[in-house]
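Kindly review these tokens for lecture notes.

. . .
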Amino acid sequence: MDPRSRYPPGMGNGRGGNTSYYGRGLPSQQHNQQQQQTSAAPHHQQYVQRQPQQYHHNHQHQQQQQWLRRNQIAREAAGTARNTEAKAVALSPTADGIDSSSQGWKAQLKLPPPDTRYRTEDVTATKGNEFEDYFLKRELLMGIYEKGFERPSPIQEESIPIALTGSDILARAKNGTGKTAAFCIPALEKIDQDKNAIQVVMLVPTRELALQTSQVCKELGKHLKIQVMVTTGGTSLKDDIIRLCQPVHLLVGTPGRILDLTKKGICILKDCCMLILDEADKLLSPEFQPSVEQLICYLPASRQILMFSATFPVTVKDFKDKYLPKPYVINLMDELTLKGISQFYAFVEERQKVHCLNTLFSKLQINQSIIFCNSVNRVELLAKKITELGYSCFYIHAKMLQDHRNRVFHDFRNGACRNLVCTDLFTRGIDIQAVNVVINFDFPKNAETYLHRVGRSGRFGHLGLAVNLITYEDRFNLYRIEQELGTEIKTIPPQIDQAIYCQ
């Protein structure tokens, strides 16, 4: 089934798309035939000779006269500028019926250099859709292309047209396949820039993910007059109150802080028509679910809820049945792990781990790496050891001051350091394209955590490497995770071919 057939005609007023796709435009060949027929009709001749003030012309007659004027301009331009082909093209109507004002806008975009790295079918196995097929605002399309997005990924192809219809969505897709843009694009499209009210709320489980998501929204919507605000716990409540006194259209934040502002009557959600839960399984854990459900009570009954995650445990079902009775379900998890990530394990004793890590650093071609530990104390101790070995290293965990966390996150993203040691705080949604190696210094206890950890490499179809340091006590968890994820974690070879994680 063509996904376009699910998209209702008239959505987006045809902006940015092929105006003849649903018969809204008048193809040039059909028009030429109609022009010949109407020119032969005496009634039409009489019509065009009369004064327009004497009649109330309908929309069809106005459209035909516009086409007549545009054709006349085109013939004049072709006669006076035959040697300037580009000018003639700009002034004449195209085969799709798009006028001169819409020509050449793509040529003026400031596009980033193309990403020539190899990509796996996790993001390349699409149906061939283009972003323009969704009839998005021209300004939004400009932001999409300038962000470096060339074509929709599979999750974006499935989600964007459905979200634009107003349907609730329950979507599963692998880490790093474009879920953030899959909900940011329709959210930005549906916001009324002239309406001074919060119209979209995006909930995320961590402060770092809130900052990242708000930045994506700002970049995609940089040509729109949409005000994006981010609010999380651990920051100044006073600053948030001052900011909410100014226009805000899209609010990104953690559930506790947004609920606090809403209860105080500062964050008004009566006009919020869309609620988005990113990393929905984490947001519906006992830690966050009460806040999420209280927040929904402040939304209008006609609100739309979009839920996105790579994993959906059974606990999500009760919430879905209560708040999303008939969601559109998207499941792109034919297999759980990313195709581009090579997974290995090294069987070591606990006291050998640091030495083994040193060996990996010396043998691997690391652009940037993330190293996971199971506790805050081990994060700080390991970061100190890595620094003593002579490698650049940052660390981050939930007990650090928020300003310090923000600085570490920002500097690591900008390439100031090659290695980052962290807890599972950093497993959720964090997207750093340069990370090509993930090392589980401490092996995780469950499959979900493992999946989100290794998904920090191989972002958007690129290649990555996951190395797990396994002790005797970890052997049962290793076997169970392999079975649950349906994947094979191989014994690490003496030499790892760089081609499997560096293309």
The CA atoms of residues 61 and 67 lie 10 Å apart. The first helix runs from residue 28 to 40. Residues 1-61, 77-101 have pLDDT under 50 and may be disordered.
